[in-house]
Amino acid sequence: MNLDAVYSELTLKTPAKLALVVLDGLGDLATPEQNHLTPLEAARTPNLDALARQSAQGRMIPVAPGITPGSGPGHLALFGYDPVEFQVGRGVIEALGLGVELKPGDVCARANFATLDARGIVTDRRAGRIPTETCERLCALLASKIKKIGDTQVLIKAGKEHRFVVVFRGRGLEGPVTDADPNREGLPIPPVKPRDARNAKQKKTARLVAEFYKLALPLLAKEKPANGFLMRGIAHQPAIPTFEARYQLRAACLAIYPMYKGLAQLVGMTKLEGPQTLAEQFERYLAEFDRFDFFFIHHKATDKAGEDGNFEAKKKAIEEFDAALPILLRKKPDVLVVTGDHSTPCAVRGHSWHPQPVLLHSAVSGSDKLDRFTETTANCGSLGVFEAKYLIRLMQANARMFDKFGA
Amino acid sequence: MNLDAVYSELTLKTPAKLALVVLDGLGDLATPEQNHLTPLEAARTPNLDALARQSAQGRMIPVAPGITPGSGPGHLALFGYDPVEFQVGRGVIEALGLGVELKPGDVCARANFATLDARGIVTDRRAGRIPTETCERLCALLASKIKKIGDTQVLIKAGKEHRFVVVFRGRGLEGPVTDADPNREGLPIPPVKPRDARNAKQKKTARLVAEFYKLALPLLAKEKPANGFLMRGIAHQPAIPTFEARYQLRAACLAIYPMYKGLAQLVGMTKLEGPQTLAEQFERYLAEFDRFDFFFIHHKATDKAGEDGNFEAKKKAIEEFDAALPILLRKKPDVLVVTGDHSTPCAVRGHSWHPQPVLLHSAVSGSDKLDRFTETTANCGSLGVFEAKYLIRLMQANARMFDKFGA
């Protein structure tokens, strides 16, 4: 019997309210340049400190030791889905990031406008990074001319600069298929092939991509420099059991950026639109308190600052959270978790594999007797270092949602 | 998709240099007899202390909770090979320990000289622990008379006292086969059988062992007390993917004892011969810095002292390492790990299951703000308690050898 089946069998429905606050990219590294402090250590966080004194702490491995996750696997793991088992193609993530409302089975591709020479050789994989406005014009052109291929609907959405996504929506489609991208200049665009030669749905997808090229390339022939395009990460939205089916929790998503709304939607959370700041997200949480059992509240600014290597901005983003925290605590959830989806250390200027700190508070979380919540205190917490995919299970336990296992 | 495949797909080749310093049997226990200090705590280690302040720490489970590894599984785990999946027969380990240059497919057996009565009943499984010189004389006698059996080459090498190894080198051989050892006195030597009755190669090995007994026993018939012998752990050297194939790292081994050189050779590391002290090993590391990406540097004295229950000697072995450390740091590797292959607590006088402390230093290891590197500080490190088989993956991450997983 697998562990998920055990958890399912033990699950009891309770009136408990659970809240997961994700400070994206929260974890960081202490470096001599910053006085051996992390942004979380350097930040003034009186409200979080008070919470820390009554909470359990630990650190979470987002995927597996040493693996740096993208936002997709990072959040799937947080939502309790093994990110190695549930892999979501880059096309799907990109489409979610652009706010495309995907349906199960949709096949998505990341696409780049590119420059081709007269013989079809790729001479610039990014078409000189054309301005976003040009990209939008070209996408509108393609979208106006190519709405359907056979019985398959085609959706095209512009991103930033040379980037866009193509979504194929129809029956009998499946990914992954190989990339329509030579991955370097000087070569032609390779024809797309099914990853599994015996998979009829992948074959249909490959034919569809070929057909799309046949229709689209002539439309761009006179454009300069974007007279071609490449497609990568072509795969369908995988079937993922819903959050509610898995945990018996009606879940709401309070995120501002499309990517995180999309990831929440992927597991069937209800998106609550509107809030534009963390304070507004917390206010909305108060307003929706009775309608849902679980709230996923996403704060992007920490990750952004880490990506920019901006220590002060990351510290400020944490202080912004701390200042807003009392709003959330007006209706204290039965189980409250504060963590990240991964670390984004300023010194790395990007996501990393370092386990992110996690704080868990409930009436039965106990206290680890730590005066603050930081990377260093979290190392000494009762939760230890564990895989992120177990977080929701720990939250459920703290919500008293699990019956005893065995007599 | 398995995790190794994920790691492989993410691996990037980089110019980074990685060094793994193994203080064999490093971990220990604090006992009242030693003032509640471990040898690592009692030792004066200014250089290691300085490193600790800029490093991450944790503890490693060598195989699985509660399992005490031999040197074979201990090192295979350190090298990142699951020691339960990659089991190496005791014959192979013994042959490696005696410095036999094994080839893939060689079948090896641990052997003991023993005493038999007139009816072939084992009356002393160790032949009264004959002196090593007698063992050497008898091995030379057997080796001079039995060089080949059919097309199979036979190699015989003496060990200490009653111990020796027999290696069968030829085509179509495979282990494991059952032991030619009743495991207690008062019984005859049982005939060897294939572990898998349908395995033709194991059958051939079993016939070969029977033939070897037929040739060897008459040669010993007049000896006293060693007129017979037992054979155990009869198996072939398993096919193990090389370290370089697995990690994209050209690896060198700087070990002094044959067993560790053999284990490194098993995974395809290049043995660098010559050095007789840790200082010389570090000097050689400097000299070979450009030729390899990964250095495995093995220090035996810590384990030996632990096995002897000699606290002072273990402390001294650690201080010897600390004194030599500045040599290594003259060309600081991008990623440096200091750990053991397992604990060998003085109070246990042998290997144990207690997780060994591990220190990891790199530009992105962060600092756990711990002033020293000991069993107790390691308990509060950011690496947590993890399985040794993930160590190389963490080293690769710190060497920035992994691409991001997912978008």
Can you put this structure into words, describing what you see?
- 2 copies of one chain form a homodimer.
- Chain A has 407 residues and is of the alpha/beta class.
- Chain A has helices spanning 3-10, 39-42, 46-52, 71-78, 90-97, 132-145, 200-220, 243-247, 258-266, 278-288, 301-307, 311-329, 375-378, 391-398; strands spanning 18-23, 56-61, 107-116, 122-124, 148-149, 152-158, 163-169, 228-236, 251-254, 270-271, 294-299, 335-339, 356-362, 384-387.
- An 8-stranded mixed β-sheet of chain A has the order 10-9-11-1-12-13-2-14, sandwiched between helices. In chain A, strands 3, 4, 5, 6, 7 and 8 form a 6-stranded antiparallel β-sheet that branches.
- Chain A is globular and about 70 Å long.
- The two termini of chain A are 18 Å apart.
- Chain A binds chain B through residues 29-32, 36, 59, 63-73, 83-84, 87-88, 90, 93-94, 110, 233, 345, 347-348, 350-355, 375-376, 379-380, 384-385, and chain B through 1, 3, 6-7, 10, 54, 58, 363-369, 380-386, 390, 393-394, 396-398, 402-407.
Entry keywords:
homodimer, about 400 residues, alpha/beta, Alkaline Phosphatase, subunit A, 2 domains, eight-stranded mixed beta sheet, six-stranded antiparallel beta sheet, 14 helices, 14 strands, about 20% strand
